[in-house]
Each structure stands twice: as C-alpha cells, then as structure tokens.
Amino acid sequence: MVEKNTPPAQHQEQRPGREGKMDPEPVYITDDYRAADKLRGKVAIITGGDSGIGRAVAVHYAKEGARIMLVYLEEHKDAKLSCEEIRRHGGEVIARAGDLGEKSVCEDIVRETLDAWGQIDILVNNAGEQHPKKSIVDISEEQLLQTFQSNIFAMFYLIQTALEHMPSGSVIINTSSVTAYKGNPILLDYSASKGAITAFTRSLAINLAEQGIRVNAVAPGPVWTPLIPSTFSEEQVDDFGGNTPMKRPGQPAELAPAYVYLACQDSSYVSGQVIHVNGGTPVNG
User: Fold this and answer.
1) What is the DSSP annotation of the chain?
2) What are the two backbone dihedrals, phi and then psi, of residue 254, each rounded to the nearest 5 degrees?
3) Could you tell me if residue 181 is inside a domain?
4) For each of the chain's 285 residues, which pLDDT tens digit applies?
5) Residue 18: inside a domain
6) Where residue 227 sits, what CATH number does that domain have?
7) How many domains would you assign to the chain?
8) Beta bridge partner(s), residue 124
9) Domain range for residue 75?
10) Whole-angstrom distance, CA of residue 184 vs CA of residue 132
11) What residues are annotated to the active site?
12) Does the predicted TM-score (pTM) go above 0.85?
C-alpha cells in the first residue's frame, strides 16, 4: 500500500513564491542522473527558469552540454541560485529578467541570445501563473487577462520572435498541465489557458513540420515548486499531491528528463505530442 507523503502545511504571501521559504526545498537533480552529451553545442531559451520545473530543466540541459538563456520575472535571488547550479554542473548561462507578456521583452531576449551565441536551437516555454478562485464570478477581468497574457500570449510572442532564427532540427517545448485534461474547480482560468497550450502545441507542430521544427509539450501533475505555497492555502498545501495514485507531489527533478528527451534526437520522430508526468493519473490525450 502506498502511503501518503505530502508537504507540511505552509503558505507564502508573496507571489511568485520563494524557494528558500519552502519546507522541504524542491529537488532539482538527483545523483543518479547520467548525462550523455545529448544537447552538446545547443543553445536553449528557458522561461520560468528561476526555480521549479524551469530550474530543473536548465540544470539537466547544462549537464547535457547546452548553453542556457535563463528567463525569469523578478525573482533575482532564486535566479542567481539557478545560475550557480547551472555553472556547478558545467553549464554556460545568461540570466534575463522581464515580463514575457510584453513582446518587446521577448525581442530583447532573442537578441541577447543571438548576440551571445549566434543561434537558438531549443525554446522551452515554461513560465506561468495561477490564481485560485472558488467561483467563476470571483475572477476579475484583470486576473483573466493576466493569466492568459502570462500563460499563452507570452508563448506566441516569444515563438514569433525566435522562429526566424531557429533552423531545421530545432525544437519547441511547452509546459501544459494535468488541469488541461481533468480540470480543476478552483483553477478555471489557469486550466483554460493550459488547454489552450495543448491545442496550440498540436497545431503549431503541424504548422512547422515542413520547416523541420518539432513542437511538443509536457503536462505536469502536482509538482513541488514555489508556485504551490504562494497560491494555495496551508490546508491545501498539506494535502498537495495526495490525490494522485502515488499519493505525493512530484519533484522538479522528476520532470526534467522528459524535457531532455523532447529536446534531443532521441525524440526525432515525436511532434505534436504531450508527455504526462503526473504521478500516475490516467488522462486522455
């Protein structure tokens, strides 16, 4: 019998959350991960890279030989720790703060990446936000626009800007969510935006197939990141991940290998797909 193993009750008032205030702190890479130079010579832009899934992906990519443009909103301390971890694992990194909901920021990121390394091979659209509300009538127009601006509009802006610089063989990886498939009664706008990401991923994969660019997504289940204690109540955090078959949340380190797979040649015949890393929850699609 699988025993429930959820985090202790906790909450952070500040959004986005801060990793250093989490108990326990997330796990970003494990000692048994064996890199194999799968991304040697590649340049990756990773959004939401200051902590959580983004940091884990960045560290794994660094171990696989990629150079990283790490994009984040304003969590400077966490972003600094991400850069230290990337360098500790042998990677080269540039960190850039900014709101991806502004197209000019996306243009700056692409320009700085090209100025530094002259190429873009991998684009990981991972940044996002959520604001739980008990009823749809509680979702303000401002919140609705902000959620979609961060979670889906930003993907359009960054891809539109980067695409002309991405050669055949490049890859785009988007972060969707289990909520796009099974729903969530208190994350209505977030779930809707993640559903949009899934549909966008499938459509863009078809659109870019002739250019030789693959587009896929990862749909995480409950994962222990700073987003969780900063958006949920103590009671909700205390049971976070407990409703999965594995009865626990995932760690960012358990997500990152899926992003490595989709970025490298191991997945050369995979496009328009979603990998579900969710603790065993069956979903359709």
Assistant:
1) -PPP--PPS---SSSS--GGG-SSPPP---TT-----TTTT-EEEEESTTSHHHHHHHHHHHHTT-EEEEEESS-HHHHHHHHHHHHHTT-EEEEEE--TTSHHHHHHHHHHHHHHHS---EEEE--------SSGGG--HHHHHHHHIIIIIHHHHHHHHHGGG--TT-EEEEE--THHHH--TT-HHHHHHHHHHHHHHHHHHHHHGGGT-EEEEEEE-SB-STHHHHHS-HHHHHTTTTTSTTSSPBPHHHHHHHHHHHHSGGGTT--S-EEEESSS-----
2) -85, -15
3) yes
4) 678 899 999 999 877 778 888 999 999 999 999 999 999 999 999 999 999 999 999 999 999 999 999 999 998 999 999 999 999 999 999 999 999 999 999 999 999 999 999 999 999 999 999 999 999 999 999 999 999 999 999 999 999 999 999 999 999 999 999 999 999 999 999 999 999 999 999 999 999 999 999 999 999 999 998 889 988 889 899 999 999 999 999 999 999 999 999 999 999 999 999 999 999 999 976
5) no
6) 3.40.50.720
7) 1
8) 46, 173
9) 39-277
10) 9
11) 190
12) yes
Q: In the numeric block, which tokens belong to residue 204? A: 């863009």
d(CA 212, CA 238): 45
For the record, the structure tokens of 158 come out as 């960054």
Task: Let me know if residue 56 belongs to a domain.
Answer: yes
Residue 284 domain-assigned (yes or no): no
